[in-house]
Amino acid sequence: MSRTAVAASISLCVLLSACGMGKPQLASADGELAPCNASRCVSSLSRDPDYRIEPIAYEGSRESARLALLRIVTAMPGVKVVLQTEDYIHAEFTSPVMRYVDDLELQFPRRGQIVHVRSSSRIGYYDFDGNRERVEQIRAEFNAVQP
């Protein structure tokens, strides 16, 4: 293999490995989910219809809903739960080939029987509705186990 081919291969590997990087935009210290600012994001707190997704409704206790959602999320491929508290879950989803990272946040308010959700890709402009589809998959699986 020529030096040029080796250099090109190394450059391509570095470029591709950097594709999955990016800094997440997560909930603030006061617990508010960050707003969506690109088409690669959906949020139940957004008023913009392009970014809006319905919160996840539940019956029963907040803790049982949190545990059920945690089980569903941790069973999904490429997931790593980064943080979980009594009212918040942050999970990272890494794609198998390009190593892109998407952040999923679930927020469990003390009032009402809803879970606010935000799912966003760290980089890029458009995600081909991958985050919306992931949230809807989680919602469908959660609704299937609700009483």
Automatic annotation (TrEMBL):
Q: Which residues form the signal peptide?
A: 1-29
Arranged from A to Z, the UniProt key words for this protein are: Signal
Can you say what this protein is called? Answer: DUF1499 domain-containing protein
Give the organism, scientific name: Solimonas fluminis
